[in-house]
């Protein structure tokens, strides 16, 4: 299924759901209140910018007095839609990727549980402004991010971090010790980044695990990924992918749990971070 076909399928499903809401004389706000969702979730589903889950479809059907046969048709439509991965490419002319797929900001806003594994870089939600600026500057001047877009993209990344202070959400991060040791930025920037990671340990809704060097890995850490509930995002140099099938969710949830199981958490993680900070030296 191509990107255009996937986008069209989301829009068609959203239009059917919107028609069911309108038939009952319900506004998007009232439906969101009935389902205890944020109103933006209703809007994104109806406009095809977010793929609903099976539970979302059933809840929508119950709230709009939809008969079982129609709900079954909608579930079949959803299964067809979710049989393919949904890739998107970063475009210099459209760094926000409007309309192609839900943004990271939107996914984070809706999720109640965020899981993030990284093998090479500090997770985006935990990056300091200086560290994030260095990361984004890698793409400046390329076909990924034009020069003038850097500060706007940095602002969006920092805005996304505000979800960390939402006590209704939980965040689980697992990184390899190499993330703490690899010098991808000036030493003074890395010092500030490591200090921030150490202070985040102890936040009630944030769990940071560090896999120490030398640990026996249960799976090969081929790449990092982020799970927003059951939606998975993977970034490569070529593109970013959004995976939303139940099979993908089960597979990546299992991988994350296995990696988290060998990580040091709490004070154990803090000690690894402080050791990295102590031994941080400028390159010769």
Automatic annotation (TrEMBL):
SMART domains: HTH_XRE. It holds the Pfam family HTH_31. This is Helix-turn-helix domain-containing protein. Residues 16-71 form the HTH cro/C1-type domain. InterPro entries: Cro/C1-type_HTH, DUF5753, Lambda_DNA-bd_dom_sf. It comes from Micromonospora sonneratiae.
């Amino acid at each position: 299924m191509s990107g255009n076909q996937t986008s069209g399928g989301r829009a068609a499903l959203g239009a059917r759901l919107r028609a069911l809401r309108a038939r009952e004389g319900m506004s998007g706000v009232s439906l969101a209140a009935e389902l205890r969702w944020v109103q933006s979730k209703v809007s994104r589903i109806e406009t095809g910018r977010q793929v609903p889950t099976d539970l979302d479809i059933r809840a929508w059907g119950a709230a709009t007095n939809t008969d079982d046969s129609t709900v079954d048709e909608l579930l079949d439509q959803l299964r067809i839609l979710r049989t393919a991965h949904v890739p998107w490419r970063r475009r210099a002319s459209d760094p926000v990727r409007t309309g192609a797929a839900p943004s990271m900001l939107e996914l984070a806003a809706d999720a109640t549980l965020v899981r993030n594994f990284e093998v090479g870089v500090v997770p985006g939600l935990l990056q300091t402004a200086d560290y994030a600026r260095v990361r984004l500057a890698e793409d400046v001047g390329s076909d990924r991010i034009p020069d003038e877009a850097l500060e706007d993209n940095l602002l969006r990344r920092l805005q996304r971090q505000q979800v960390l202070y939402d006590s209704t959400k939980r965040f689980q991060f697992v990184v390899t010790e190499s993330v703490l040791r690899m010098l991808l930025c000036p030493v003074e920037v890395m010092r500030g980044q490591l200090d921030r990671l150490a202070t985040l340990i102890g936040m009630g809704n944030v769990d940071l695990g560090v896999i120490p060097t030398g640990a026996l890995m249960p799976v090969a850490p081929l790449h990092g990924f982020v799970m927003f509930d059951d939606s998975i995002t993977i970034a490569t140099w070529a593109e970013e992918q959004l995976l939303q099938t139940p099979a993908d969710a089960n597979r990546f949830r299992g991988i994350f749990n296995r990696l988290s199981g060998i990580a040091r958490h709490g004070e154990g993680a803090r000690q690894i971070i402080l050791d990295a900070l102590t031994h941080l030296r400028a390159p010769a």
